[in-house]
Amino acid sequence: MKNIIFKELKELTRDGRFKIAIVISLILLVVATITGINQYQKNNQQYLESAETERKVWETQGEKNPHSAAHYGTYAFKPKFALSLFDYGVTKYTGNSIFLEAHNRHEASFSEATDQTSLARFGTLSINFVLIYLFPLIIILIGYNSYTKEVEHKTLTLLKSQGVHPTKLTLGKWLATFIPVFLLTAIIFLIIGIILSSLENLAFFTWSSLLAIFASYTLYYLIITTITVLISMWSKSSGMSLVSCLIIWIIFSFITPKIATNFANENHPYPSKSEFSTRIAEDRKNGLDGHNPWNKAAKKLEQETLQKYNVDSLSQLPFNYAGYRMQKGEEHEAKIYEKHYNILNEIANNQNNTYKKLSFLSPFFPIRFLSMDIANTSDNLHWKFTKAAEKYRIEKQRFLNNDIKDNSKLGERGYKMSAESFKKLPKFSFTPPTLGEILKDNTQNIFFLSLWFFIPFLGLIITSKKI
Amino acid sequence: MFYNNLIYEIKLLIRSNWLILLLIGITLLFVFATFNGNKNVTKRVNDIAEVQEGFNKKDSLMLATLIKIEKGEKTGLPYWQLPSEPMTVGSRYPRIAIMHPEALSFLATGQSDMYTHFKSPTVYGNNFALDYSEMVNPVQLLFGNFDLAFVIIYILPLLIIAFTFNVLSKEKELGTLRLLGAQPISVINWLLQKIIIRYLIFTIITSIILLITIALFSPNAFNSINNLFGLFLLIYGYILFWFVISFIVNIKINHSSKNALSLIGIWLLIVMVLPATVNQIGNSLYPTPSRLKMINEIRLIKKENEKKQNEIMSEYLRTHPELAQGNGNDKFGFWHNYFASEKIMEERTKPLLAEYDLQLKKQQNLIRMFKYVSPAILMQQSLNNIAGTSEKHYNDYKKQVFEFSNTWRDYLVPMLFKKQKFKVDNYKELPQFTYKNRIVNNVWLNLLSMLILSITIFVLLGFKDLKRKIIPITRL
Fold first, then answer.
1. Out of A105, A367, B327, B433, which could bridge A220 as a Cys pair, Cβ 3.0 to 4.6 Å?
2. Helix, strand, coil shares of chain A as percentages rounded to 5?
3. Number of folded domains in chain A?
C-alpha cells in the first residue's frame, strides 16, 4: 500500500495542472490572509476605540435626570473574534452595534453589506473561501482519474495480476488523493495559528477552536476524496469522471444552498420590519405604560403596591413610586420584546434547520454552519450577542429606575442623578460560548458530516472488491 | 460551405440528443428561477399591501376624527392625539413612501432582500439617517437566491462549456480531423463556422425559452419592453463572451479533457475567484467609512447639544412630548420648543452624516469601476439595474424619501407657526410620495464593454491562428 501511495504522489508532482492549481490557491490564500489581517486589525481597533469612547460619553454626561439618561442611552458593540479572520461567516450581514435606550429594544444597525455595492454578493475572498470552495476542486483534480487512468492505460489488469489486494489498492489510491490536500491544510492551519497568536489585542483566540475547525475541514475533505475516488471507480473514462465530479461539486456548493434559501423562505417567512413593530406596538398598547399613571394596568399596579406595603397613599411608600412604576413598565415592555424576539428567533432557527435538514443533499451545509459557528461568525452568535445586549439594557434600566425610586421624592420634577453615579453602571461585556457548547449545538452537523463520510466510504470498500 | 456546415451541424445535434438535453435543462432552470423570483416579488408586494392597508385604516380614522372636530363633536382623544394639530399629523400620521417593484424585478434579487421598501418619515427627527435595512436571516443573505440572474451568470456559461468544449478536439480524437483538413476550407474557418452555428442555436433556444417563461409567469414584464429588449441583448453579449473563450481554448489546447478542465478553470476564475478577490482587495484599498466612528461622533455632538436643547425645553419633555401638559397657547409653545430643539440636533448632525454619505458614495463609485474586471460582475450589475434592485436604486430611493420628508415638513411646519388648524381640506392636499426610477440602466454601455472585451480576447488570442488558417501540425 505504501508503494501505491508513493507512486501516485510521485505522478502528482509531475502533473502541471496540479502545480498550477496549488500555486493559484496559495496566492489567493496569501492575499486573503494579508487583507484579512489588515481588516481585522482595523476593525478591532475601531471596536476598542468605539467601546471606550462610548463609555466615556456615558460616564461624563454630568448630573442628569436618570430617565433622560436612559433615553440618551448607550451602545453595545460586538467584539471582533480572532477566528473571524479565518471565516467571515455572516458578520458582513449583521450589524455590529446596538443602541440601548429606555422602552425600546433596537436591532443591531449598520451592517457592512448595506454599505457595500452588490459586488459584495459574489462573496469575499477569505481563507475559508479558498478552503471550502477551491480545495475540494484540487482533490477532484488529483483523484478524478485515479482509477480511470488505469483503465485507459490498460494497466488495471496488470495491477490485479500482481496480486495486490483490491481493498488495499483502493485505500492506497484514496490516501494518495487525500494526503496532499491534508498536508497542505495542516500547514495552512499551523501558519494561521502562529499568525493569530502573535497578533496583538486578539480577542478569544484558542488553539482548540482552530484545531476543531481543522478537524471539520479534514472530515469534509475526506468526504470529497471518497466521493471522487468512488466516481472514478464507477466511470468508464477520465472525462466522464471529471465531469461527474465537477457537476457534484457545483451542486454541492452552489446550487443546493441557493435552492435551500428559497425553501427556507417559503416555509418560514420572516415578517417585515414594520409588521414586526406593529405587533409589538399592539401588545404594548394593552400593557403597563411606565409613563402613564391613568392606564388601567398602571392603576392595578398602584393598588397592588399599596396593599403590599400596607399603606393608604403613594407618598407613604418607603420609596418613590414613580421610579418603581417606571421599572415595572420597563420590565413589562422587555417581556413583550422578549416574546416577539423569541418568535423571530424561532423562525430563524426553523430556517436554519431547513438548511440543516437538506444536509442529506450536500455536505456543504454542515461544514459551512460548523465552520462559522466555531469561528464565532454565525448568526447563532449574533443572536447570543443581541440577547446579551438586551439583558444589559434591562440591567441598565433597572440601575437608573432604582435611582429614581430610592433617591427622589414622589412628584419631584427636577431631580437629577449625580454625575459620579453614572460610573457605577457595570460595563457591557460579551463572552462567546465555549468550544464545548458550540460543538454540542452542532451535533447534528457533525453527525451529517460523519454520515456523508461513512456511507460513501462503505461504498468504496464494497466497490473495490468488485473491480 | 457555411450552409453545408449548418445543415450538418443541426443534424448532428439532433441525433446526439444534445438539443433535447439543452432544451430540457434550460427550461427547467429558467422556470424554477422565474418562479422563485416571482415569489420574492410577491412577498414584497404583499408586505407593501399590508402596510398600505394599516395606513389606510389609520388615515380613515383620522379623517373621521377631523370631520368630528370640524362639526364640533367630542372625540374622546387626549389633546396631543388630535389630528387638528398639524404637528400631531406630522408625527403620528406620516405618509408612507413606497418603493414598488419594477416590471422586471423578478429577474434579480439584487439588494432587494436587504432593504425595506416602505418608510414613513415624520415631521421631526433625523430623516437623513433613517434605517432602511429589512429584517432578514443573515444566512439567507450569505447563500443568496436561486433567481434568473444566478442562472444566467453562473449556469449558462457551464452549459456553453459543455456544449462547445470538444468541438475541435472530438474530431481529432475520432481521427476525422485529417479528413477535415482535406476539405476546401481551413480547419480554423470550419471551427469558427461551427462555433458561430452553435452560438446561434444556443441563443435562439435561450431566447425562445426565456420569452415563453416570462410570458407564462411574468407577463407584466412586457410592459417594460425596452428593459426586456436590453435584457436579451445583454444575455447575447454574455453568451458571446463565453463562446469566444471556448473558441480560443478549442484552438489553443485542443484536447477534450484538458479543454474541459481549462474552461472550468476560467469559469471559476471569472464568476467566483475574481469577483471575490476584487471585492476583498477593493474593500481593503478603499474601505467603507467606519460606521462605529460615525456613531461615536454623533454621540459626542449629541452630548454637546444637550445643554443647548435644555435651554429650549426641559430634557424630560424632549424625550416624551406626549407628556406635555397645558392648554391654549401653551400647547403651541410646546411644539415650537420641541421642534426648535429637534432642529438643533438635526442641524448639527446633518453635515456629519452628509460627509459620511459622500465618502460612501465615492467609495462605492470606486468599487463599481471593478465591474470591468470580470464580465460576471458586469452582468450582475446590469441585471440588477434592469431589475431595479441595484444599490444605486436603493440609494436613490433613500434620497427620494429624504426629499419627500422635506416636502412633508414644509407643508406642516408653517401651519404650526401660523397657528393654523389641520382641516379636512388640508388632508386632501397633503403631499404624496411616488417613487420614480431615476437610475439610467446603462444597458448599451455595459453591452458595449462586453463586446469590446470579447472582441479583444478574440483578436489578441485567436486572430493569429485565424490568419494562418491552419493549425500547426503539432496541435493536430
1. A367
2. 75, 5, 20
3. 1
> Which of A2-6, B149-153, B203-207, B446-450 has the least mean pLDDT?
A2-6
Over residues A251-303, the pLDDT tens digits come to 999 999 999 998 898 899 998 888 898 888 888 877 656 556 556 777 788 88
Q: Which residue has the cell 407577463?
A: B219
Interface test with A, best of B50, B296, B316 (most A CBs within 10 A): B296
Which residue in A31, A110, A271 is closest to B281 by CB distance?
A31
Residue A111 host element (H or E):
strand A105-111
- Give the mutation candidate from A35, A237, A261 for the B interface (greatest B CB count, under 10 A): A261
Residue with cell 457555411: B2
Contact A166, A467 (CB under 8 A): yes
CA angle B266, B272, B276 (to 5 degrees): 130
From chain A, pick out residues whose CB is under 8 angstroms from the CB of B162: 243
- A13: domain range? 2-466
Dump pLDDT digits (tens) for A326-366. 888 888 889 999 999 999 999 999 999 999 888 999 999 99
Local structure of B254: helix, strand or coil: coil
Please give the backbone phi and psi of residue B133, each rounded to the nearest 5 degrees, phi first.
-75, 145
Among candidates A35, A61, A352 on the partner chain, residue whose Cβ is nearest the Cβ of B284: A35
Secondary structure of B348-371 as H, E, C letters: HHHHHHHHHHHHHHHHHHHHHHHH
Q: In chain A, which residues have their Cβ closer than 8 Å to the Cβ of B283?
A: 39, 116, 120, 124
- Which residues span the domain enclosing B84? 1-476
Give the integer Cα–Cα distance in Å for B207 and B215.
12
Buried b (16+ CB within 10 A) or exposed e, B250-266: bbebbbbbebbbbbbbb
Q: Which of B134, B256, B279 sits opposite A120 (nearest CB)?
A: B279
The pLDDT tens digits for B91-126 are 889 999 999 999 999 999 999 999 999 998 888 766
pLDDT of A31 > 80? The answer is yes
pLDDT single digits (tens) B40-66? 999 999 999 999 999 999 999 999 999
| 3-class secondary-structure state, position A64 | strand
